[in-house]
Design brief:
Length: 56
């Protein structure tokens, strides 16, 4: 069941990466910071959850 959560986290992280690219294009640095932070946090938790599920 945790693998579904990891996939959802990964989808959110990928969407945040798309947002980072868009905010770079618009030069909106405040939104860029939040998008980058979101991509980093959700990316970390998705990778950590996937590793935990594989190793368990």
């Amino acid at each position: 069941m945790h693998i579904v959560l990891a996939i959802l986290f990964l989808l959110v992280a990928l969407l945040a990466v798309v947002s980072v690219i868009r905010q770079l294009k618009y030069k909106n640095f405040f939104a860029l910071a939040f998008s980058a932070l979101t991509a980093a946090v959700f990316g970390f938790f998705s990778i950590a959850t996937i590793i935990t599920e594989i190793s368990a």
